[in-house]
């Protein structure tokens, strides 16, 4: 896919995610998806619908703001010959989110090469990825650990 087409696809996905009702309600905004789908920046403000009993970011909203991005990024970078699913996740709440929070997702060539190497024979691979949620001052609010399931589709294994 050429770079203009990828950039347009990234813009359209960003737009679609920003009008996705669960994200609208939780105050989640996708600020940036790079044209190569290797960097994503997400912001979540503190509002009526994502505030918990003590007035800080609701934990479920903190997790949901990080949920689909590694899967989407890998799907776009590995291509249609791969199955990519979220398998497991955990979140460690470090400090209260008292205002807007941000998560910056990144994947690189080394990760993609590692995945391709481990799945080349048709085996599943379970890469473990991490993202931090930080407030505007850079204070760590939460650490999210994601395990993904990646495998070549059967038709690609036979080729």
UniProtKB/TrEMBL annotation:
Protein name in the entry: DUF4442 domain-containing protein
């Amino acid at each position: 896919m050429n770079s203009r087409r990828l950039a347009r696809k990234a813009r359209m996905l960003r737009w679609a995610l920003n009008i996705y009702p669960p994200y609208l309600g939780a105050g989640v905004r996708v600020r940036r998806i790079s044209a190569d789908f290797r960097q994503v920046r997400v912001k979540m403000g503190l509002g009526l619908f994502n505030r918990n009993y003590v007035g800080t970011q609701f934990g479920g909203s903190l997790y949901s703001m990080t949920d689909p991005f590694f899967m989407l990024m890998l799907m776009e970078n590995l291509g249609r010959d791969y199955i990519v699913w979220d398998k497991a996740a955990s979140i460690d709440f470090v400090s209260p989110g008292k205002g807007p929070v941000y998560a910056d997702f990144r994947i690189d060539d080394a990760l993609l090469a590692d995945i391709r190497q481990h799945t080349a024979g048709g085996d599943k691979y379970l890469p473990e990825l991490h993202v931090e949620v930080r407030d505007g001052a850079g204070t760590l609010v939460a650490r999210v650990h994601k395990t993904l399931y990646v495998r070549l589709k059967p038709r690609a294994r036979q080729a």
